[in-house]
Every structure is written in structure tokens, then in C-alpha cells.
Design a protein that fits this description.
By secondary structure, the chain is an alpha/beta fold. The protein has helices at about 30-40, 70-100, 115-125, 145-150, 165-170, 210-225, 275-280, 305-315, 345-355, 375-385, 420-430, 460-470, and strands spanning about 10, 15, 20, 40-45, 105-110, 135-140, 155-160, 185, 195, 230-235, 255-260, 290, 300-305, 320, 330, 345, 360-365, 370-375. It has 12 helices and 18 strands. The chain is globular, with a radius of gyration of 23 Å.
Length: about 475
């Protein structure tokens, strides 16, 4: 046991200071989260389009049969609620022996920017009373989180990436439900996997040390009258706790808990396919890319596989245009646009002709008055995916969907992005790890270097938790 590690009270439960990071679209489910809670930590079930099961125990494919986006969105909300409820029920059953004794905890994870977030969260909590301890929520500014959680008698765990963001949430909403604040999750925007909370004032290429940022967060919490017994959860870049010993029993930081997002992917209970697990063992430093191709508009971190490289290349085949000859844009584009008149610079005209000759024969408009060149096959996939949109996000740059009365962002659909629901559902249910989005934290390369995983060893969750408690 690492010196300084001890069980603590969080959200009214006695737990090890170890949280399983919730990974959306079925990458954390009842198996992984139930096992994590059974080991005395905080298991986190993803309530983002979670899997549900038929009476034989087989996963029910999420197929959308309605014609309109609004109708498909309603199907998505129904899938999301039913799936999350089933996952919570199964996880609780797995861990009931410890949970009934007040040890361990089960949380659900919700993305505030997912389509129908408030409806999904409310629907799940209404049907899982007494089973869920808390709600972890990020991806946006979830002002309503505290109100919904308090109404259902569960704790809330907001995910933020700066003291400034927490101050805004506290002043506007959270101070009215202070007693239900279970912890504050600081998710480092440069180290965490998945979507990251980089602000416009922060440089994605210049990572900052998390210590002063967390110290500032604690100072803000103290100024707000929040006691040090309310933990801060450090998320992003956490691998071995012996690297964080100066954070334990540190009076500047108060109570600290650690969230593990990447390491729980490689366990026997982890629901991701074996091909994904094997891919994790081959990653090298630098194989995780912090990028801004996500249709959410957020930066996110994922494996830089051919799927992401294709998006990078697509954006590089991009030129600005004008609808009239002006300035340097004096040359009429004569490839990829049919009879439409677009004026470009001389150099960009030459680039466009080169791309056209290489098979990228279709020019697609972006919301930024640029054109990207893709193959005819790519164009067909992009247009079909945009047409099939089911409103999985509150606002989607790729399809122009918005969860509003008009159901549109009012902006042109962006072909530089992709359908995130399609690719995440595919990869977690056995799709090609090279041709789909594969989220990962920036420490994922350590699987290949950590002797714990030598000879392809895949631990159980209990073995992983025991290992983490030693400091390794």
C-alpha cells in the first residue's frame, strides 16, 4: 500500500480515492463499473447511448427507423434512457455486497452537450432511485446539473478544466445545492482522453502544469465556502500514484482523489473489443493526437490512426474562395465544382488541379468559405452520414443539427468533421480500430512500457485496483 493512501468519504460513501473515468458510448458499462465499485472505488457507468439487452442477454443494436431527424432523435433518447437504466441495474447487482455495506460507489457519466442530455439524465435517475450515488458531468457548462441531481437526491460531480469555469457554475447555480456537491473533477485539457475543455485563451500546443491549476481551483472553492473535505478529482495523465505523492495530504490542495480513464480500458471486464485492447498495447509516445475535428467543436484526444490521418489530410486539401473576382482571388476554379463559379488564388488553382488529378475530384463547401477536396466515395459517405443524423449532440457541426425548435444550427454542415455517433458505436462493437475514432489519454503509450502488462497480461479490475494501491 502506498504511504498516504487511505479510504475517504465522498458523496456519503467510504471509497478508495480511485475513480473509474466514464467513457461514453458503451466503453464503460456495468461489467467494468460494477467491478470497480466492488473493489472499493467509484465505478462510473457511461449514460451516453449505453447498450441495452434483449431477454437472452444480447446487445440490442441501436437502429433508427424514423424518417425525420426529430423522430430519430426521440428514438435516440429512448435508447439512451433504457440502456443506462439497464447498465445501472446490472452494475448494482454486481457490487451489491459492498454497496450495501456503504463501501464503494456507482456514478453515471453524462455529457452535457449530448442531445437530450437533461431528458436522459432525468429519465435515468427517476428509474434508478437508490442505486446511483452521483452524476459526473462535463462537456459544456452544465448549470442545471445541480438542480436535477438535488431533485433526485444524488450527488453531482461537475467536470471542469479551470477555476474560472467552476466559479461561474458555482455563482450561477451550484451554490443553491451546495450540500449535494460530491466532488469537483479537474480534467486536464492537455492530458485527458476524449473531449477536452481548452478555452480560447489556452494554447493546445503549450500544456500547463496541472498543479497550479488545481491549487487555484481549491482556492476558489475555499473562497466559496466549500470545505476541504469535498475532494478535487484529478483526471488526465494519471497512471502510477507514486508519481503524485506530493499531492497526497497536501494542505494547498485539500482532499485529492484520482481518476483513471485509460488504464481501466485494458482489463478483463472492460467491454471494448479485444482488437482495441491489443491496439492499446502497441501505442508509442506521440500516438495520441489532440485535435479539433470533433463535431462538438471541442478539442479531443484520440489515437492518431488512419481515420484521424484522413481527417488531417482532408483539411490540408483546403482552399479559400470568393464568389466574385476580388483581390488575389482572380482565377476561376475549373475542377471539382461543376458549373459553379468560385474564384481562387493562382497557387490554390494549381493545388486544386493537382488534387483533382490524384482522385480527389469533389469540392465540398465548409462554413468558413473554403472548399475541401475529397474522392467521390468519400463525398457519398459524408452526405449519407449527414442525412442519417439522429441528433446525438445538442449542436453538431458535421450535420448542422441543433437540439432546438428549429433543429438547425443555421450554419452550413461541415465536411471536415464526421458522424461521431456512427464511429463510436462501430468501434466499441467490434469495428476496425484503424478506421474509426479511438479515444485515448496521452499516457496510453505506457501500456507498452509498464512491466505490469508484459507478455500481453490483461488484469481483472480487482488486480488493477490492487496494483494502483501499491503506487504502480
Amino acid at each position: 500500500m502506498l504511504s498516504g493512501l487511505k479510504m475517504l468519504s465522498m458523496g456519503g460513501r467510504e471509497v478508495w480515492p480511485l475513480v473509474e473515468g466514464g467513457k461514453g458510448v458503451a466503453a464503460t458499462n456495468h461489467l467494468s463499473s460494477g467491478a470497480w465499485a466492488l473493489a472499493g472505488g467509484v465505478g462510473t457507468i457511461s449514460a451516453v447511448n449505453a447498450d441495452s439487452y434483449d431477454p437472452t442477454g444480447r446487445i440490442i443494436p441501436q437502429i433508427y427507423r424514423k424518417l425525420s431527424r426529430r423522430e430519430r432523435h426521440e428514438e435516440l433518447v429512448e435508447y439512451a434512457i433504457e440502456g443506462a437504466v439497464q447498465q445501472v441495474q446490472r452494475a448494482y447487482e454486481m457490487a451489491s455486497s459492498e454497496l450495501s455495506r456503504g463501501l464503494g460507489a456507482l456514478n453515471i457519466n453524462v455529457l452535457w452537450e449530448m442531445g437530450g442530455a437533461q431528458r436522459v439524465l432525468t429519465g435515468v435517475l427517476e428509474r434508478t432511485r437508490g442505486l446511483v450515488n452521483g452524476v459526473t458531468c462535463g462537456a459544456g457548462m452544465p448549470y442545471k446539473l445541480s438542480e436535477i441531481a438535488a431533485h433526485h437526491g444524488v450527488h453531482y460531480y461537475p467536470i471542469i478544466s479551470s477555476a474560472r469555469a467552476f466559479r461561474a457554475l458555482w455563482k450561477r447555480a451550484y451554490s443553491k445545492a451546495a450540500e449535494w456537491l460530491g466532488a469537483v473533477v479537474y480534467e486536464d485539457p492537455w492530458l485527458a482522453g476524449g473531449h477536452n475543455g481548452l478555452s480560447n485563451a489556452e494554447d493546445p500546443r503549450s500544456p500547463q502544469d496541472p498543479y497550479p491549476r488545481v491549487r487555484d481551483l481549491r482556492a476558489t472553492m475555499r473562497e466559496s465556502g466549500i470545505p476541504d473535505s469535498v475532494p478535487i478529482v484529478m483526471a488526465g495523465g494519471v497512471w502510477a500514484l507514486r508519481e503524485w505523492t506530493d499531492w497526497l495530504d497536501n494542505p494547498e490542495l485539500g482532499q485529492i482523489v484520482f481518476q483513471f480513464g485509460t488504464r481501466p480500458l485494458l482489463t478483463q471486464e472492460s467491454p471494448i473489443p479485444d482488437a482495441w485492447k491489443q491496439r492499446l498495447m502497441t501505442l508509442q509516445e506521440g500516438d495520441i493526437l489532440l485535435h479539433k475535428f470533433s463535431p462538438t467543436g471541442f478539442y479531443s484526444s484520440a489515437v492518431r490512426n488512419p481515420f484521424l490521418r484522413n481527417l488531417e489530410a482532408r483539411s490540408e486539401r483546403q482552399i479559400a474562395f470568393s464568389t466574385a473576382a476580388t483581390g488575389d482571388h482572380q482565377f476561376l476554379l475549373d475542377v471539382g465544382v461543376g458549373r459553379k463559379n468560385y474564384y481562387v488564388t493562382r497557387d490554390d488553382l494549381l493545388h486544386a488541379r493537382e488534387w483533382f488529378g490524384a482522385g480527389f475530384t469533389e469540392a465540398l463547401k465548409t462554413p468558413d468559405n473554403t472548399l475541401v477536396f475529397v474522392t467521390a466515395a468519400e463525398k457519398a459517405v459524408i452526405r449519407q452520414d449527414q442525412s442519417d443524423c439522429m441528433g446525438c449532440l445538442s449542436q453538431c457541426a458535421f450535420s448542422s443539427w441543433a437540439d432546438s425548435e428549429t433543429n438547425t444550427t443555421g450554419r452550413l454542415a461541415d465536411p471536415r468533421s464526421f458522424c461521431i455517433q456512427k464511429t463510436l458505436q462501430d468501434v466499441v462493437h467490434g469495428g476496425d480500430t484503424e478506421q474509426n475514432l479511438v479515444f485515448g489519454g496521452h499516457s496510453a503509450f505506457r501500456f507498452a512500457k509498464d512491466p505490469f502488462y508484459s507478455n500481453g497480461f490483461v488484469p481483472t479490475v480487482k488486480q488493477l485496483v490492487d496494483r494502483i494501491l501499491t503506487g504502480d
